[in-house]
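Q: Convert this sequence to structure tokens.
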Amino acid sequence: MSAALDRLKNLTNKISSYERVRKDNISALEFLYKDIGIDKKVENFDDIFDFKAINLSGASLLQESLGTIKKGKYLQILAISYNKEARVKSKNISLGYFGKAELVDVKLKDKIVEFIIRYRFEKSFMTLEHYNGMLKVYKKDLDE
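A:
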């Protein structure tokens, strides 16, 4: 019984840890949203999550080279909107243009990269919640 209780405690600690990290992430994300000027393009913070994705040009988002400037490129935050009713289904929208990547202040570039990573982190939680809700339809079948 003690082993089962220990596993339950560990699982509970992990879940509460993720929720705490998620809450802190949202606060930091909202601060960056204002700090780097995304609020001038997307007035309501929650509306950034309506985009299918947010990408970055001009700097790497790969783990092994995170934030590394791509020489000759322009630093720009691009959001991808999706409308299944439109003739052209997806559309890129510039949320921020910062000029030649190698000329952008390093602190600003780091804030932009952090914004994208924090956005994707929260978006992944939203995706998990979405699919968890969809699976509830099948959970009923398993309980019968």
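The first helix runs from residue 2 to 35.
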